Amino acid sequence: MCGIVGLFLKDEGLQPELGGMLADMLISMTDRGPDSAGVAIYGREKGQDVKLTLQSDSADKDFAALEKDLKRVVEAQVTLKRKDSHAILSLPANQADFARQCLRELRPEVRIVSIGDTMEIYKEVGLPKDVAARFGLREMHGTHGIGHTRMATESAVTTMGAHPFSTGIDQCLVHNGSLSNHNSLRRKLAREGIHVGTQNDTEVGAAYLTWKMHQGHTLGEALKSSLDDLDGFFTFVVGTKDGFGVVRDPIACKPAVMAETDKYVAFGSEYQALVSLPGIENARVWEPEPATVYFWSH
Amino acid sequence: MQTFDLGKRSLRELNETLHAQKSMTNQTRWKIVNAKGNHAIAVGLDAPITVSVMGSTGYYTAGMNKHAAVNIYGSVGPGVAENMMSGIVTVDGDASQYAGATGHGGLLIIKGNASSRCGISMKGIDIVVHGNIGHMSAFMAQSGTLVVCGDAGDALGDSLYEAQLFVRGSVKSLGADCIKKEMRPKHLKILKDLLKRADADAKPEEFTRYGSARKLYNFDVDNASAY
User: Per residue in A216-250, is it b (16+ CB within 10 Å) or e — as a string?
Assistant: First the structure.
């Protein structure tokens, strides 16, 4: 069992409240996933800069002088903003590849959780309320976001086993369910040169989408083909630069409910995740159909 | 009318209070406010009381109901009226998956749509859905009646036993061993009665009856591919 929440704001006036709204939704799904939690937050684009979300198990040691060390080798404006075990590294997009190389040499233990113009991913082991507090989720602004509370079934409870998983630039995936063919798919992806870091089934799902998109498929097409190639139970929510998408496997036993008003579109594993949203009493509430790909975008 | 505020008191208190009502109770009308998607609201009732739940609920609303009339003024999550024995459960909005699953008796009315697996393994319950139902509905349904005023999804009545299915609209596909059957006067009578009790605006003649072909009851190697 796991919990998923998603919130896409149509009303720009609500953007300062995105983090608070998403935090309430996330915490309401604690019963479905008390062992880890994570969010992907999409903010506004800032010029030519790209953002790398970094994570370290020894954040004090790794992040203390990282900005200074990077500035020494990368000839551009580099900023590092630490948030607990994570840090957001901002730098000009044309320096991103070089910075990643430098990072590997300077801090081999630091993991890159996500890369994007607008997306930041925060995830940790612990109760959703504690994870939200550690990263200051309530204070975050943005256009849309997705969140996940995890009750692990397929692999260990670790930071890197928590969701969301990055699937590409400004793209991520969260999952409720379990994939049964993740081992064979992991081997297939390895032959294609796609590396999967953990034993987690969802990471294989994320890598599968990345692989499909490298082959020239759109995210929508990749999700559609996942219905044929992934065996198991899944409700997927994917975050994109412009919005989010939802797809459920054809059996659709993992729950999903959506709500829409003129101010937002929201997703929850249960209706309980939506009750804190403004105007929910009069929202259009429905259950997404099985084997159908939905997208909402700005 | 007794009012119970789930915003102020716990779900366990609510169900304990409702369980404490005996068959001759004078407190026959209950209103539950601040339902807020909670699970297991008004489960296991065993008295002829009327319970009105204001707002949408989560899993297993009015499960195992006996004798009580439970009205939900909103939509319900998975497993509404699961294993109901008797009484009436009415949902004003939509129902999520496996509504009325394994129900032994009573009447479940869904005024909106029901999603997948509606009436799965039903054992005597009557279910009337004013809207549509999702895939795999009435899977292994043993007895009782499922009435759908709208359309049915894929694999309706797969591995069906003796439950009767009536659908007014289209059926996306029939499950294994489920076939279209002739509508006889006795079926029209059952339908008329259920539609009336469920306050559904439809005529019995507009429906098609589906039932079991009874080919999968006993194993026959010729039917192996149908299992």
Answer: eeebeebbbebbeebebbbbbbbbbbebbbbbbbe
Q: Domain range spanning residue B89?
A: 2-218
**Interchain CB contact of B63 with A (< 8 Å):** no
B207: domain CATH number?
A: 2.160.20.60
Half-sphere exposure of B49 (CA within 13 A, CB side): 29
- What mean pLDDT value characterizes chain A? 94
Mean pLDDT, range B194-213, rounded to an integer = 97
In a domain, B223, yes or no: no
Please check whether residue A197 touches B, CB under 8 A. Answer: no
Nearest to B78 among A255, A274, A289 (CB): A255
Task: Note the CATH number of domain A2-44+127-297.
Answer: 3.60.20.10
The rounded distance, in Å, linking the Cα atoms of A5 and A106 is 36
Structure tokens at B206: 């507009």
Residues of A in contact with B75 (CB under 8 A): 271, 285
Catalytic residue check, A2: yes
**Residue A158 identity:** T
A281: contact with B, CB 8 A cutoff = yes
Q: Average pLDDT of B58-83? A: 98
pTM given for the model: 0.93
Confidence (pLDDT) at B207 = 98
**Looking at the partner chain, which of B55, B58, B134 has a beta carbon nearest the beta carbon of A270?**
B58
Whether pLDDT at B220 is above 90: no
When the candidates are 3.40.50.720, 3.30.70.100, 2.60.120.620, 3.30.70.600, the CATH number that belongs to A45-117 is 3.30.70.600
B46: closest CA of chain A, how far (Å)? 27
Please, are residues A107 and A68 in contact by the beta-carbon 8 Å criterion? no
Overall domain count for chain B: 1
pLDDT at A1: 86
Is B58 at the interface with chain A, CB within 8 A? Answer: yes
Predicted pLDDT of residue B191: 98
The Cβ of residue A198 has, within 10 Å, a number of other Cβ atoms equal to 16
* Amino acid B223: pLDDT: 77
Task: Determine the pLDDT at residue B6.
Answer: 97
- Which residue type, as a one-letter code, is found at position B106? G
Whether B82 is in a domain gets the answer yes
CA distances from A265 to A42, A257, A273, A286, A295 (A): 15, 11, 13, 11, 10
Q: Tell me the average pLDDT across A124-150.
A: 97
Could you state, in order of their start, the residue ranges of all structural domains in chain A?
2-44+127-297, 45-117
> Does B227 map to a domain?
no
